[in-house]
Write a structure and sequence with these properties.
The chain is an alpha/beta fold and 624 residues long. It folds into 4 domains: 120 residues, Rossmann fold (3-Layer(aba) Sandwich), CATH 3.40.50.2300; 128 residues, Beta-Lactamase, CATH 3.30.450; 143 residues, Reverse transcriptase/Diguanylate cyclase domain (Alpha-Beta Plaits, 2-Layer Sandwich); 169 residues, 2-Layer Sandwich (Endonuclease, Chain A). 44% of the residues lie in helices and 23% in strands. A 7-stranded mixed beta sheet has the order 20-26-25-24-21-22-23, sandwiched between helices. β25 and β26 form a beta hairpin. α11 crosses α12, α15 packs across α20 and α17 packs parallel to α18. The longest helix is centred in the N-terminal third of the chain and has 41 residues. About 1% of the residues have low confidence.
Length: 624
């Protein structure tokens, strides 16, 4: 209920006892009277402060009372006027009523008559206040209706990027902006936020909020002002759905935001939160379908169903198949800088490149913004490695980049059923682990893919001065060779004797031949190793092929004559079969010792084998 106002009253009466009586009556009822004894002083007071009511006598000398009424009604129409008159001043009283005074109080004065006149002024004040409130409420309702109309542009959208863009547009319509940006969460395992849209000078906005921005986030406070800008937090039931940064054209509005503008922005934030939550649910539903809604890849749910059926078929018919992980780890970090729209375009190009490199029967699924899974039916390890090379080549040919910065190659891992696991979860874990290992591995760290075969050998094995044998038989290695070691022990240097080297080669060949594993061995530089490996192949036969390269080779079924002196001065044993991959590169320290680099890193060895085949134009050994 609205409380009756206390009136500020100007009293101008000729008789001092009347003025004192009026002031006492009004003060006893909570009003604040000010007594003046002439019109000049009264008008001067009205210039200094506002009065709600003026009580003036028509009996003032020289007709000053009626002149005062003229003056107040002309210059202070918001002030009500009550005149005090005698019974012989009927004409003047009528003139005053015509000028618009509130009422006339007749002498002799009584408290009741004065209070009735004051209450009429008080009631008029209440009516004016209510009219102002209703006018303001009408203005707010009109603005609220306009805000709801603007929000209608995004409440039914299911694309989070579109919703975010229109939220920013609605904010700009409510608050004139110099610049603005909106960030939405990444719907992936990468976490964090990404800039979905911006206005004004885009260079002032980072691709994602900094960690300090997120640490300072106060989800309880909807609008936060800081250094000439505003931040809106759109908080959903379980997470922050978006962050909106706004820089008003008028910097003062950031520190002192008008109430109506704040209310409108809060309305946009509330409806924007609901729209983003709904878009997330719609995306989750879409991802349970067959096709990913944003690219031509399948969804992970469909991929899991297909992989489960493939496991059943492979188990019944003794088949193999491969799962492959293509991971662009770090794609969404702030340094790359894609916005949501350009990110989607990049994802489409990535999927298109991968699809162009695999067979029609292979299944490509998009897991999240950074990762793809591939199912390669009836493909073993050699087939998976061949597919991996094709995928890398297709992605390189696509020339994926942002802001003139070339996108780094993905980490690609493979896992073969049943060698690496008999269920989908284990195969995916193995594939992902190999992808992570490849990303941190020696081949990527040393950029071996950019080097030819012998350049790779020189990097991994080192030169004459990189490994030295002292008088006690200990080997001192240069720090450059230490860089070729990995953290899990798959790639290391060690010392060998020629006899041990031959036994290693024979054991590897015998194991591959015993399992009738498809694949190849490449040997050069040491007759003992060549003899041990070829003897195993001649004894057991099978699908494992052994090739001895060198200038002295006879050109028989196991030997390839190649006129390159490096094949005689360097020793290598490369093995790539369905059982795995192994590389041993060696150089003689003296007549009895060898320094050797050995690696079971699947992708490092595959790179060595492929670069060797390319160098000497050897036939690829790939069943796919």
């Amino acid at each position: 209920m609205m409380e009756p106002p206390r009136l500020r009253v100007l009293v101008i009466l000729a008789r001092e006892e009347e003025a004192s009586f009026v002031a006492r009556v009004l003060a006893d009822h909570g009003d604040r009277p000010s007594v003046m004894h002439d019109v000049t002083t009264g008008l001067a007071s009205m210039q200094k402060e506002a009065f709600d009511l003026a009580i003036v006598s028509l009996s003032l000398p020289r007709g000053d009372g009626l002149a005062f009424v003229h003056h107040v009604r002309a210059l202070h129409p918001e002030t009500d006027v009550v005149v005090v008159a005698s019974r012989d001043e009927i004409a003047e009283s009528g003139h005053a009523m015509a000028l618009g005074v509130l009422t006339t109080v007749m002498r002799p004065l009584t408290g009741d008559a004065l209070l009735v006149a004051a209450d009429r002024a008080r009631e008029r004040r209440l009516l004016l206040r209510e009219r102002a409130r209703l006018a303001a409420e009408g203005g707010r309702n009109k603005r609220r209706a306009q805000t709801y109309a603007r929000c209608a542009a995004f409440v039914s959208e299911t694309d989070a990027s579109v919703v975010a863009s229109r939220i920013l547009e609605a904010c700009a319509a409510e608050l004139p902006l110099g610049a603005g940006a909106i960030y939405i969460p990444l719907r992936s395992m990468a976490g964090g936020f990404i800039r979905a849209a911006s206005t004004g000078d885009e260079t002032r906005w980072p691709a994602a909020p900094t960690s300090d921005d997120l640490d300072d986030l106060d989800p309880v406070t909807g609008i936060v002002s800081s250094h000439g800008s505003l931040r809106l937090s759109l908080v959903g039931p379980m997470e922050v759905c978006a962050l909106v940064d706004l820089v008003p054209q008028d910097a003062a509005m950031a520190a002192d935001l008008p109430e109506a503008c704040a209310e409108a922005l809060e309305t946009v934030a509330a409806l924007g939160t609901a729209a983003l939550v709904a878009s997330g649910k719609a995306e989750a539903i879409a991802r349970t379908g067959i096709k990913d809604p944003e690219t031509s890849a399948y969804t992970f749910a469909y991929f899991g169903d297909v992989a489960g059926r493939e496991i059943d078929r492979a188990a019944r018919h003794d088949r193999r198949f491969t799962l492959m992980t293509v991971a662009f780890d770090g794609l969404l970090r702030a340094g790359v800088g894609p916005t949501a729209g350009s990110l989607l375009e990049l994802q489409r190009r990535i999927v298109d490149a991968v699809l162009s490199a695999v067979r029609d029967s292979d299944v490509v699924a998009r897991v999240d913004d950074e990762e793809l899974y591939l199912l390669l039916p009836e493909a073993g390890l050699l087939g998976a490695l061949a597919a991996r090379r094709r995928v890398l080549a297709a992605l390189q040919e696509a020339e994926l980049s942002f802001n003139d910065e070339r996108l780094a190659p993905p980490a690609i891992g493979v896992a073969v059923y049943p060698t690496d696991g008999a269920d989908l979860g284990r195969l995916l874990r193995t594939s992902r682990r190999r992808a992570e290992r490849e990303q941190r591995g020696v081949a990527r760290r040393l950029e071996l893919d950019k080097l030819s075969f012998w350049e790779r050998v020189d990097v991994l094995l080192g030169g004459e001065d990189d490994a030295l044998l002292d008088a006690d038989g200990r080997v001192a290695m240069h720090s450059d060779l230490e860089r070729t070691h990995d953290e899990v022990g798959l790639s290391r240097h060690g010392t060998f004797t020629p006899g041990l080297l031959a036994r290693v080669g024979a054991a590897l060949a015998s194991d591959a031949l015993r399992h009738d594993a498809e694949g190849s061995f490449y040997v050069a530089g040491d007759a003992g190793v060549a003899a041990a490996v070829t003897l195993a192949a001649q004894t057991k036969g099978g699908r494992t092929r052994v090739w001895v390269l060198g200038r002295e080779a006879s050109g028989s079924s196991f030997e390839l004559r190649v006129d390159d002196e490096r094949l005689d001065s360097r020793i290598f044993l490369l093995s790539a079969t369905e059982l795995g991959a192994y590389a041993l590169l060696a150089r003689r320290l003296d007549g009895h010792s060898l320094i050797a680099f050995q690696s079971a890193d699947l992708f490092l060895v595959d790179g060595l084998v492929e670069s060797l085949r390319e160098r000497y134009h050897l036939q690829p050994e790939a069943p796919r």
